[in-house]
Amino acid sequence: MGLEERKIADVIVLTPRGMLLGGRETDELHEKIKELDQAGNQRLIIDLGKTTYMSSMGLAALFRARATYLKREAQVKVCCIDKKVRQMFVLVKLPLVYGDDVHETLEEALASFHAHHTT
Q: What's the whole-model pTM score?
């Protein structure tokens, strides 16, 4: 597992690779989200395009990310969800938590920040 981080304009994109099973790789993602949150990051995208499987612990990290960002009126979005991971999302009703902040592509997720910004 590795966690790729990049910045596109004022948006941080985190791309976890491999499986998020609740071990070191999930802790790494959780810690990075916590670090960005505490630093005051306003816009975060979690790109799951390279995540092949996610356990309940991985899903919990996404729930926590959403909750902590919303508390400060910041935004976190998810994109590029693999079919297997998408099944888990639906099973635990994560789309209800993320609402309109689940996107098919990174480009759509990035564009949605600007769509929200102009309304």
A: 0.91
- Six token digits for residue 13: 């994109």
Give the torsion through C-alpha atoms of 62, 67, 68, 73, to 10 deg: 120
Under the banding of pLDDT at 50, 70 and 90, the label for residue 69 is very high
What is the C-alpha separation between 87 and 71, in angstroms, rounded? 27
pLDDT of residue 40: 97
For 50-85, b/e burial (b = at least 16 CB within 10 A) is: ebeebeebbbbbbeebbebbeeeeebbbbbbbbeeb
Count of CA atoms in the C-beta half-sphere (13 A) of 88: 18
Question: Look-up: residue for tokens 């995208």?
Answer: 45
Task: Give me the domain span that covers residue 73.
Answer: 3-105
Question: 23: which DSSP letter?
Answer: S
Residue 43 belongs to domain with CATH number: 3.30.750.24
For residue 87, being part of any structural domain is answered with: yes
